[in-house]
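WARN no homologs supplied; continuing
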Amino acid sequence: LSLTNPTETPRNEADLLLNLGNGNFLLNNFSAAYRYYKKREETELDFLDESREAIYFSRYGESAFKSGESKKAIKILKKSLKIFTKKKDQARMAELNDRIALAYQDIEIYSEAVNHFAEAMEINRASGNTSSLSRSLRNIANNLFWLNKKEKTKKSGQLTQALNNYFEAIEKIEKFGVIQKKKNQSGLLNIQIETPLDENASAAASG
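OK structure emitted
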């Protein structure tokens, strides 16, 4: 397969690279998709359609994450999130916050993981999507536990902020009646801080 001469038709080359990336992405060939998406980025050509650009960054970021490039994935996914936030696409906003959280979790920046999981949970709550709330709570619990372990010999600023974000999300869920008020009777916080949940239960493995 030979690419069209980029000096003559740079837009055609960019579109071809995007299509090759999309084809590999849809076939779950994420390493190959990541390479083609990266080459598309290197053309430095703007997208003519904002929705197409947002989907590109979303798939590019997911491919980066599944290729072991979590730091790169965070930067790319945030570009997609910015566009979908502008469009007020709540489903995409929740999904992207969740993916960004998983990438932060992968590089052990647990406070940011909690922040983005909590944001995803709040967006889902506000839009009436309750199907993923328990998974979000589980992921937040795991990250609070890991953050607590990491910060035992450090300042507790990040943990305090993460806990504040968590309780704010819980308060909104309870206030609007999405789930029953079980915080006190279940001792959820104690479980999060003292006993880690099964790490295999985390959504990080599946992305």
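The first helix runs from residue 10 to 26.
OK
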